[in-house]
User: Which sequence fits this backbone?
């Protein structure tokens, strides 16, 4: 089983749509959880950390279910500039980051 | 806003040659990492470094790889004898001390060095 598993997509959505990404992780000892965004041939950039209580940052909402080892990201009112690859990332108990394959989002006018 | 910097942005080398990739982490950070991303694949952990020694290394980080913090600012990754399969994007990342080795502080990534081995 992959350590962090994501649907690679691509997700093709119109501007203004709501889109949801899901992710599962295998190591129950994982400490911290993140969504990073990666543009083509660029470095990963932190989008948001993910907490069990759920957290929201503008149009972005992240959820963590530790019991199911499941992480989600919801993007509301999609913009053209949201087009990117979204990386589900888990920090293990040694401090290193474990990345999912990424989910590609293409927002179209 | 402080940022991680990396040089060079692109390195082309012949198979069997040595390369040194350089990183300048954020100044008050004390945990340093190298990751790599082969084209079309996921980002993979290579090595973590703290207090002037390796904390953890992956299976990828074999005897051909080494890391060093030669002074107070630079953090380098050396590949002694490059192979074709070393061609990838190499990202340096750093994290502050708060939260300890498994703390929740964010790892900040540099822009990467694209290594092409011919």
Assistant:
């Amino acid at each position: 089983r992959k350590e962090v598993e994501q649907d690679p997509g691509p997700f093709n959505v119109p501007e203004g749509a709501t889109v949801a990404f899901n992710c599962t992780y295998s190591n129950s000892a994982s400490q911290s959880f993140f969504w990073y965004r990666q543009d083509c041939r660029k470095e990963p950039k932190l989008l948001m950390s993910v907490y069990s209580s759920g957290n929201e940052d503008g149009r972005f909402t992240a959820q963590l279910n530790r019991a199911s080892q499941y992480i989600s990201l919801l993007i509301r009112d999609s913009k053209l500039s949201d087009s990117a690859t979204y990386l589900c990332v888990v920090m293990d108990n040694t401090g290193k980051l474990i990345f999912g394959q990424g989910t590609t989002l293409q927002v179209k006018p | 806003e402080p940022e991680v910097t990396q040089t060079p942005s692109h390195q082309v080398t012949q198979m069997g040659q040595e390369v040194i990739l350089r990183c300048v982490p954020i100044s008050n950070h004390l945990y340093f990492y190298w990751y790599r991303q082969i084209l079309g694949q996921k980002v993979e952990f290579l090595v973590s470094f703290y207090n002037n020694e390796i904390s953890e290394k992956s299976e990828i980080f074999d005897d051909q790889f080494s890391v060093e913090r030669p002074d107070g600012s630079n953090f380098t990754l050396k590949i002694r004898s490059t192979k074709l399969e070393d061609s990838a994007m190499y990202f340096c990342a750093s994290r502050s001390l708060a939260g300890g080795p498994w703390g929740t502080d964010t790892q900040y990534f540099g822009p990467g060095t694209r290594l092409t081995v011919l």
